[in-house]
Amino acid sequence: MKVRYLNSFILQFESMPAQDRRKVTGAVSGLLGFIEKRVRPPAGLGIKKLRKNLWEARAGIRTRVLFALEPGLVTFAFTGNHDEIRRYLRK
Asked: Do residues 60 and 23 make contact, with C-beta atoms less than 8 angstroms apart?
């Protein structure tokens, strides 16, 4: 399984406070464990399908991770709060 991080994800991630970055890192790790090893996803992730191959997971109360799933590839597209995710999707 390949993992790709878009620049939009990296830039947003780097601008977050350290506490939020830790939460996002934990969510990404939990997602990858779920996808690669088919283990049960952590309960707090709240994985939700937004579009055909586009998904959202919770990294905390206010923080979300937007990712795309394709055969053999997970692409992390963006991270931010609910409103930031909505704005990103409108682009």
From this structure: yes
Give the helix, strand, coil percentages of the chain, each rounded to 5: 45, 30, 25
- How many domains does one find in the chain? 1
Phi, psi (5° rounding) for residue 60? 175, -175
Taking the CB of residue 36, how many other CB atoms lie within 10 A of it?
Answer: 11
User: Residue 91 has what DSSP assignment?
Assistant: -
Per-residue model confidence (pLDDT) at position 37 = 83
Domain that holds residue 36: 2-90
Is the entire prediction scored with pTM above 0.85?
yes
CATH code for position 49: 3.30.2310.20
Span 42-69, pLDDT tens digits: 778 999 999 999 999 999 999 999 999 9
| C-beta of residue 84 within 8 angstroms of C-beta of residue 13 | no
Give yes or no for a contact between 69 and 56, defined as CB atoms under 8 angstroms apart: no
